[in-house]
Structure prediction request, 336 residues.
Amino acid sequence: MYLSFYGLGEPPFELTSNPRFLFFTPQHREALSNLEYGLSSSKALTVLIGEAGTGKTTLLHAALESERCRGVRTVLLSNPRLTRAEFIETLASQFELGARAEQSKASLLEGLETVLRERRRRGEITALVVDEAQSLSNELLEEVRLLANMETPTEKLLPLVLAGQPELAGRLNEPELRQLKQRVALRCQLAPLTLQETAAYISSRIRTAGGETTRLFTREAVTLIHDHSHGIPRTTSVICDNALVHGFALSKQPVTREIVLDVCRDFDLRGGVPTSSLENIPAERASSTSAGPVGAAGPEGHEPRSAASPGGASDPAGGFEKAENRARVLSMLGLR
Ligand SMILES: Nc1ncnc2c1ncn2[C@@H]1O[C@H](COP(=O)(O)OP(=O)(O)OP(=O)(O)O)[C@@H](O)[C@H]1O
Ligand SMILES: [Mg+2]
Prediction:
C-alpha cells in the first residue's frame, strides 16, 4: 500500500460514510440542517435530491447520528426495490408489530398507529427514511403517502425523509403523485462540487488521514481530477485513490496530471461538464467548473494505453493489475 510512501496514517479515499472524513460545503450544511430539522420537528416529508455519488447517503447517516436527532428513532429503508408485500413485512418487523401486522395492510396501519401514538405520548419521535427513493414504485410511493397521513391534531406521527437521484424529483412531478408532492415540507439538493470545493474536499480527506496535500497532488493534477469527476465526490475519491496507487508504482511524488490522465483513461472518465449535470447546478456554480475533453487537456508525453492492455502484468506501472478491483470500482461508478 502507498500509505508510508505518501506519509499517510490511513487511507484517505475510502468509499465509506466515515463521519471523520465528512466534508461540508455551505450546501451540505444547509441540507444537513434541513434533514435534522425535518426529523426532529416531525415535518411530514423532507426530500433530498442529488446526482449519484454526491453524498446523499453520507449526509443521511450524519443527520441520523446528529445530536439534534438523538431522540428520533428511525426506520431506514435502503433497498426500495421491494414488492408491496415485502415493504409491509419490513415495516412490521422494523416496528416490531408482530406477525399479524405482516398479513394485511389494515392490521399494519392499525398496529403502527398504536405504536406511534404510544411512543409520541412518551415524547419520542419515530421517522421513516427511504434512501434510493428514485427506485420506489408508484405503488410504494402511494403506500408511503398513506403512512405520512397518520397524525395527531397537532403533529405528524411518522415524519418521512425521501433521498434520491434527480429522477425522484421527476417522479414527484407526475400527476399521479401530486398528493405526495403536496406533502413536501422541506426540500434540499446536493449539486456537484465546484473546482474550489473539489480541491478543498481532496485536502480535507488528506489532512484527516494525516497527510499533506502538496506532497500528494500537484495543483494541475487536482484541476484535472475535478474536470474528470465533474465534481462528484465518489468519482473524485476513486480517481484520487487510483492515482496514488499508480504514483506509488512509479515512485512519483506528488502525483502529476499525467498520472491522473492515465487513470481517467483507464476508467473511461471523460473531462468536461455533462449537460445533465449542468442542469442541476446553479449558474454561478456551473461557471466555476472547468471544461474540456481529455484530448484537449493533452497527455503531455504519456502514450495512451491501448484498449487491449489497460494494465495487468504487462503494465510497466503495475497500477491496475487487479482487474477484479477495477471491475468493482467501474460498476460502483455505474460505468459498466
Ligand atoms: N460530504 C462528503 N464528505 C466526505 N465524503 C463524501 C461526501 N459526499 C460523498 N462522499 C464520499 O463519496 C461516497 C459516495 O457518497 P454517497 O454514497 O453518500 O453518495 P449518494 O449520493 O448516496 O450516491 P447514490 O445516489 O449512488 O446512492 C461516500 O462513500 C463518501 O466516501
Ligand atoms: Mg446513496
Strands lie at 45-50, 72-77, 125-130, 160-164, 184-190. The pocket of adenosine-5'-triphosphate (ligand 1) is lined by residues 15-17, 21-23, 28, 50, 52-58, 132, 165, 233-234, 237 (CB under 6 Å).
